[in-house]
UniProtKB/TrEMBL annotation:
Entry-linked InterPro entries: Beta-barrel_TonB (IPR000531), Beta-barrel_TonB_sf (IPR036942), Plug_dom (IPR012910), Plug_dom_sf (IPR037066), TonB_rcpt_bac (IPR010104)
Keyword flag Transport: no
Leader sequence segment: none
Main location: membrane
Domain of life, per lineage: Bacteria
Residue ranges annotated for the TonB-dependent receptor-like beta-barrel domain, each copy included: 471-979
Protein's name in the database: TonB-dependent receptor
Alphabetized SUPFAM superfamilies for the sequence: Porins (SSF56935)
GO cellular component, as recorded: cell outer membrane
Family according to the record: Belongs to the TonB-dependent receptor family.
Length: 1012
């Protein structure tokens, strides 16, 4: 094949020859299209416009894994920004089981795993809150309360291309410090051919074969259908249409070991001092280790990090401690995951000057779990036993525990429904040969609701047991207690029905851009535009803050054993946790230490959760088995509106300097954001006594006052990108941009309650109200950063790349407590009161990283691809309970409040090492690949309380896929994720204090696809 080179039009034998897709991308960038065009280039673009092919040379079509990697290389090479992308030759050919898995194959990207699959994506080791996600160039909503996107919501079979922009230009929507993740669906006229395709994938999970699942059968499936067509008319008009449907019905097996989480008040650093018998593990009287026996009998104490004003150190400084939660438990799950998705696109070109695109994406997903828990209550210390026998590691994690406590057989019935809708219309008009105008209107909405039944039956008295930490999870030994006998759990039967996390996230946006071509030797075009958007986030409140609860205990007239036996089921799983346990998870022994067969093993007494809940609720005279409603007018409601207007101007250049071709762009984006937050507080009346003393009294009618607050900011985001084509196969790249990441919508809420003067001497409202408590800060400023990238890239041929990137990010911002003054209207009077809340600080932090990509293919059909990212940072995130905490008063004076016992975490989601590799073999119609992905440990914040530390341990996961093309229409596929059953392990507060282990097992898919 002979291709014309750029500089001298000579034949380029043996050198890199750009694919048509790459040529089209370069042309688009030079013409000044929006940067998203880098990854919307179509492989089916007219080859005659991109290359000149000798008529007597046969063109060899490259498909499958090799083609995917070639397009990845081409996309990266021809981009102006630092971009890594993944595209499919045909709809349905994206080589991954989910969008999350597809993104993980891109250098520097890694995922957070839930239910065994990839969900949130990190870029260059940085957490998802520092990234932004766009679908067809528009913001995507989610139901999590943050700005990350759960990529398992979108079927990979209906997405055409994915890309990660690691540097940005002025035309891109702001919001991604780490990068921007872009997804694109098909545009039918650009696709250029008729296509009908259908695919069925059968799913079998080996661990599911061991579960008697009441929610799902052993085998699941994914069925996908898509259709693309174009219609041309004699008058020059053209219409293209595409739509795709997918139905997914699978299981997501998961077996768990769990400890109480640090997100609430159930995990403590209890004192482990033999000389202190008033509290801790050596207390003189049986009771919770965080409570005191005598004196003030303070509760919920544990290790006190508050600084003693006399010593300047923590009150408990120097005292040994150990971490213990309210419980340690095992959880067996029956699971179901159903998803219905529809993608649609309509493209209309009334003439050569007009192009109209409408697209829609709809996804409805329902996840269900029937959970069965064996819970060992844990905080109670037994005098003379627990303390002397306690064994810990060097960070206070318990390795051996003994004592007497209650045991529970508990259960939960959980469901989460999440509905996504995204719509957009894009109108592009070529006004003149030089001027193009583009109008884009978009709407996106996600709704989420969670329903949960929580049941409990427990022992009537404390039972003696001990446990030892195994290689991966603890193992319990009980004395004369059979956990498989349901009659042992007849005390304190209780059920709770919760409706919670009912959320709506909506984005409405409009964008108007122009592209004006210049007739110059340096500057090729000027781009500019304006964008306005309104994001709303609503979380309904209830009696439980983020939801509502109906709770029932067993009426004394009903026999507990009748309820338990009437609802009892066989333990649903064989081989429970066998891949992470050292044997039986529970051993029953008699008083002489002999093993008792009954009660020894890896199972316990279980019951049907719905049956149990109905029976307990029905035992109450007024008991109704029903989920409660949530309310808008509630003190737990979060209602946030974020209005953004941004404008940008950018110049594109492409010229020759010192014998080298250079190209790129520079520009400025200005972003103005206004946040309004609505909340509700209890209504108070100001009451005046006969002596003139004021007091607050809650309104008799229980009414609520609507309160409102907000904030605003304007940010300037310059950017500069440079690419130097040093030779035909070597280029250098550089980028500088100012980035911003906004606070999560759930953190912008506005909840406030008053602190009242307790002396009873206030004669004015300003004296009566002395402070405010609350959460949420609608005036939270974004985290700003300067970002610098420099790269060397070598492209020996179409199948090969060696790329090295060095990047540096300087953050201006962190998170700390600060006291500010807010104004409130009470009794018709405006009062200024102090409140301490989380703010974005002015601290400076740095991230330095190195990213490397390598790909090579041998002539025998074997190829490989590696990606590695290393990063280091001095960013500090302190735990709010056991870390160093500070408070800044209204005058700017900072005071340290606590002297922590645990080191700070890093940037949320930050991993020092991220590695991905792929070894593939492709010959004829056979195509196979083995994939390995590794991510080192990282700090993962909770959604309910993101101020507490939780670490996810590093893990490597193997995947595999293979396909065989039977003929031009049929192809069989086999795919597997988590091939060797790598569990997810988490530590609470500090690395080394095991908190949770999730065992998913492998997931296997076998499919048949048809294309016409």
């Amino acid at each position: 094949m002979s291709l014309k080179s750029r500089d001298n039009n000579n034949s380029t034998t043996g050198q890199f020859a750009m694919r048509p897709v790459a040529k089209w991308v370069r042309t688009a960038v030079i013409a000044g299209m929006a940067s998203s065009c880098v990854f919307t280039a179509s492989a089916q673009e007219d080859q005659g416009k991109a290359t000149e092919v000798e008529e007597d040379v046969e063109i060899i079509s490259v498909t499958g894994t090799r083609r995917t990697i070639q397009d990845q290389i081409a996309i990266k090479r021809e981009a102006t920004t630092v971009v890594d992308g993944l595209s499919s030759e045909d709809i349905g050919d994206l080589p991954a089981l989910s969008i999350g898995e597809a993104l993980e194959s891109i250098t520097g990207a890694a995922s957070h795993r839930e239910n065994g699959g990839a969900t949130e994506i990190t870029i260059r080791g940085l957490g998802p809150f520092l990234s932004a996600t766009h679908i067809n160039g528009r913001e995507a909503t989610n139901g999590s309360g943050d700005r990350s996107v759960n990529f398992s919501q979108f079927p990979s079979e209906l997405v055409k291309k994915v890309a990660i922009y690691k540097t940005q230009d002025a035309s891109m929507i702001e919001g991604g410090v780490a990068g921007v993740i872009a997804l694109e669906t098909i545009t039918p006229l650009d696709f250029g051919k008729q296509r009908v395709s259908a695919e069925v994938k059968l799913n079998y999970n080996p661990d599911e074969g061991n579960v008697d699942n009441s929610l799902q059968s052993d085998a699941g499936y994914r069925g996908t259908f898509s259709y693309v067509d174009q219609f041309e008319f004699d008058n020059g008009q053209a219409v293209g249409v595409s739509f795709g449907l997918q139905r997914q019905d699978i299981s997501q097996p998961e077996a768990e070991y769990r400890s109480s989480s640090p997100s609430g008040s159930s995990l403590w650093a209890c004192l482990n001092d033999p000389n202190n018998t008033n509290e801790g593990f050596y207390r003189s009287k049986a009771g919770d280790c965080e409570d005191q026996v005598s004196g003030e009998k303070l509760k919920n104490q544990g290790y006190q990090t508050k600084i003693d004003s006399q010593t300047g150190k923590a009150e408990s400084d120097g005292t040994p401690y150990a971490w213990t939660g309210s419980s340690r438990s095992y959880r067996q799950n029956e699971t179901s995951d159903e998803r219905d998705a529809m993608f649609f696109a309509l493209q209309y070109q009334p003439s050569a000057d007009w192009d109209v695109n409408f697209d829609a994406q709809i996804s409805d997903r329902t996840q269900k779990e029937a959970r069965h828990d064996l819970i060992f209550l844990q905080k109670r210390a037994t005098p003379g036993v627990t303390g002397p026998t306690l064994v810990t590691n060097d960070v206070g994690g318990i390795l051996h525990w003994e004592g007497e406590e209650r045991i529970e057989s508990a259960g939960e019935q959980f469901s989460r429904e999440e509905n996504y809708q995204g719509y957009g219309i894009n109108i592009e008009h070529t006004v003149t040969d030089r001027l193009t105008v583009d109008l884009d209107l978009a709407y996106s909405k996600t709704e989420r609701e969670e329903l949960q039944i929580s049941n409990r039956g427990r022992t009537s008295s404390q039972t003696f047991f001990s446990w030892d930490m195994g290689d991966e999870i603890p193992h319990f030994t009980l004395t004369d207690f059979d956990v498989t006998d349901i009659s042992n759990f007849t005390d304190s039967l209780r059920t709770r029905l919760d409706r919670e996390n009912v959320r709506e996230n909506e984005v409405i946006s409009a964008r108007l851009d122009f592209d004006y071509a210049l007739d110059g030797n340096v500057f090729t075009s000027v781009q500019g535009g304006i964008r306005t958007s309104e994001m709303t986030f609503l979380q309904y409140g209830g009696g439980q803050g983020n939801g509502s609860r109906n709770e029932f205990t067993l009426d004394s007239g009903t026999e507990a054993l009748d309820v338990l036996q009437g609802c009892q089921i066989d333990f649903p799983e064989s081989g429970f946790l066998s891949s992470v346990s050292d044997g039986d998870i529970v051993t029953n022994v008699d008083s002489d230490g002999n093993v008792v067969a009954s009660g020894t093993g890896s199972s316990w007494a279980t019951y049907d959760n719905v049956c149990f809940s109905q029976a307990v609720a029905g035992s109450n005279v007024d008991g109704v088995f029903a989920y409660p409603e949530v309310e808008y007018e509630n003190t737990g409601t979060i209602d946030v509106t974020e209005k953004t207007t941004s404008v940008y101007l950018m110049a594109n250049y492409d010229t020759e300097m010192f014998g080298k071709f250079i190209r790129g762009n520079f520009g400025l984006r200005i972003v103005d954001t206004e946040v309004t937050s609505i909340g509700f507080r209890n209504s108070f009346d100001v009451v005046t006594s006969d002596t003139g003393v004021l007091s607050l009294r809650e309104s008799d009618n229980g009414s609520l006052d609507k309160i409102k607050s907000g904030g605003d900011y304007t940010k300037y985001l310059p950017s500069f990108n440079l690419v130097i084509d040093y030779s035909e196969d070597i280029l250098f790249r550089a980028g500088i941009y100012r980035g911003m990441s906004r606070a999560d919508p759930s953190d912008l809420g506005y909840s406030r309650t008053f602190e009242e003067d307790k002396d009873g001497t206030a004669t004015s409202i300003s004296d009566l109200l002395v402070g405010v408590n609350g959460s949420g800060n609608p005036d939270t400023q974004p985290l700003m950063s300067w970002n610098y990238d420099a790269a060397f890239e070598w492209y020996p041929n179409e199948d090969s790349i060696l790329a090295l990137s060095l990047y540096y990010k300087q953050f201006n911002g962190g998170f700390q407590q600060q006291t500010v003054i807010e104004d409130f209207t009470v009794g018709g009077e405006t009062v200024s009161l102090p409140i301490t809340n989380s703010v974005t600080s002015d601290e400076d932090s740095e991230i330095l990283g190195l990213e490397a990509s390598f790909s090579y293919r041998w002539d025998n059909g074997i190829g490989m691809k590696f990606g590695y990212n290393y990063a280091d940072t001095d960013f500090e995130f302190q735990d709010s309970l056991y870390g160093d905490t500070f408070e800044t008063d209204v005058d700017g004076n900072t005071t340290q409040l606590t002297d922590g016992i645990i080191e700070s975490a890093s940037v949320p989601g930050f991993s020092k090492h991220v590695f991905s590799s792929q070894l593939y073999y492709q010959i004829g119609g056979f195509d196979t690949a083995v994939i390995y992905k590794y991510r080192s440990e990282y700090f993962q914040p909770y959604t309910t309380n993101g101020t507490r530390l939780r670490y996810v341990d590093g893990v490597g996961v193997w995947e595999m896929r293979a396909s065989y093309k039977i003929d031009e229409h049929f192809r069989v596929k086999a795919e597997a994720i988590n091939l060797f059953s790598a569990p997810k392990s988490q530590d609470f507060f500090v690395e080394g204090n095991l908190g949770e282990v999730n065992d998913y097992g492998p997931r296997l898919f076998l499919g048949l696809s048809y294309k016409l």
